[in-house]
Amino acid sequence: MPIANVCYVEADNHHVIIHTLEGKRHRQYGSMKEYTKRLEKHGFLPTHRSYTVAVRHIEKLVPEFVVLRTDGKYEKKIPLSKGNTPLIKKAWWAIHEV
């Protein structure tokens, strides 16, 4: 699947679930740590120990959450830990500065 279609990745025991912009889910064997490391170079950052998101797909930041727009209609709230907040905010503002 093209990396541009991936919106976020979610931990699921010894697997991860890859969520696409179209709302499809793909379950793969592997650790969240492994996927986060592989996706960093493509603009993905961890928001929480169980989630890594494509910063370009973050619609807005709210306290304790990032809001993603997946298929043009569907909004998904992803938890945002306090420790990851500064990194996510910096990356998000870098993309959204006018």
Largest sheet: 5 strands, antiparallel
Distance between the termini: 31 Å
CATH topology: OB fold (Dihydrolipoamide Acetyltransferase, E2P)
- Secondary-structure element series: EEEHEEEEEH
Number of strands: 8
Strand order of the largest sheet: 3-2-1-5-4
Choose one word for the global shape: globular
What are the salient characteristics of this protein?
8 strands, single chain, five-stranded antiparallel sheet, three-stranded antiparallel sheet, OB fold (Dihydrolipoamide Acetyltransferase, E2P), 2 helices, 20% helix, 98 residues, globular
TL;DR?
This protein is of the alpha+beta class. The strands form 2 sheets. A 5-stranded antiparallel beta sheet has the order 3-2-1-5-4. A 3-stranded antiparallel beta sheet has the order 6-7-8, with no helix packed on it. The chain has 2 helices and 8 strands.
